[in-house]
Each structure stands twice: as structure tokens, then as C-alpha cells.
Specification:
By secondary structure, the chain is of the alpha/beta class. The protein has a single domain, classed as Rossmann fold. Helices cover about 35% and strands about 20% of the residues. The protein contains 5 helices and 7 strands. A hairpin with a 4-residue loop joins strand 5 and strand 6. The two termini are about 15 Å apart. About 5% of the residues have low confidence. Its main location: nucleus. InterPro entries: SAM-dependent_MTases_sf, TRM61_C, tRNA_MeTrfase_Gcd14. This is tRNA (adenine(58)-N(1))-methyltransferase catalytic subunit TRM61.
Length: about 140
């Protein structure tokens, strides 16, 4: 996975949806990592939380945070250094400034990569173009 996730990684995911990608992240970071996954819609967040708990994924591995607009408010009390940020949002470029504040500046000794990683999922080329423009403006490289 391009995010460089491994056991012990701490990850922020925005746009939990059905939690299918959350499952993938959790398999990569277990048993000692942690996922903070944000879902704007309360009902989706509750369903995702129930789904994750039914698979034995407890609070020691994952927190599902509902009704937070990360493009406006950032990541709230989860503003800590993380290994990676995954943005599955209609306007990921609006959350990049917040993501930059949370990504670890440290060198990873596993893959010799400096700093945390960010990934956006954008099905439309216009979304990709805006996200890339904001990433460049925020001095992301890669």
C-alpha cells in the first residue's frame, strides 16, 4: 500500500462510509496501531462502528468519530502526529491544511521516507487537479 502502513502505524481516515477501507487499514496496522476514522453522517458512523465492533475491532484499535466536518474543523482532539492520512471526501483539498499539521515529520527507518504520507481518493479529474494543486501549495512532494 502506498501509505506505507505497518503494524504500529497511527492513521487518520476521513470518509468512513461502509468501513471497507477501514478494515484494510486495520489489518495493516494491527495489533499495536490505531485508526481515527471520521464520518460526517451520524447514521453511517454508527453503522460503521457497529460493523467494526462485530468483527472484534475494539477501541484499542479504532475510534469512529461522527459529525465532524474535517474540512472546517480539522481533526479535533485527534490532532496528534500520525503516520498517514487518507481523505475520501468530495473536497479533499480543503482538509489538506489540517492533514499537514498532523503528519509526522520524522524519518521512517523502515522505508527511509521522511514524514507521514497522505492519500486522497477522488473519482473526478477536477477533484484530483484541485487536490494536487493544494498539495503542491502546501509543499508536499512525491
Amino acid at each position: 500500500m502506498a501509505l506505507g502502513l505497518k503494524p504500529g502505524s497511527v492513521v487518520i481516515e476521513c470518509g468512513t462510509g461502509s468501513a471497507s477501507f477501514s478494515h484494510h487499514i486495520l489489518r495493516a496496522i494491527a495489533p499495536h496501531g490505531h485508526l481515527y476514522t471520521f464520518e460526517f453522517h451520524k447514521e453511517r458512523a454508527e453503522a460503521a462502528c457497529k460493523e467494526l465492533r462485530s468483527h472484534g475491532l475494539g477501541h484499542d484499535l479504532v475510534d469512529v468519530i461522527a459529525e465532524v466536518d474535517v474540512t472546517v474543523n480539522g481533526f479535533g482532539s485527534q490532532n496528534r502526529l500520525v503516520s498517514a492520512v487518507f481523505l475520501d471526501l468530495p473536497n479533499p483539498w480543503s482538509a489538506i491544511v489540517h492533514a499537514k499539521k498532523t503528519l509526522s515529520p520524522q524519518v521512517s527507518f523502515v522505508d527511509n521516507f521522511k514524514g507521514g504520507r497522505i492519500c486522497t481518493f477522488s473519482p473526478c479529474i477536477e477533484q484530483v487537479q484541485k487536490a494536487v494543486s493544494e498539495l503542491r501549495s502546501s509543499n508536499f512532494t512525491g
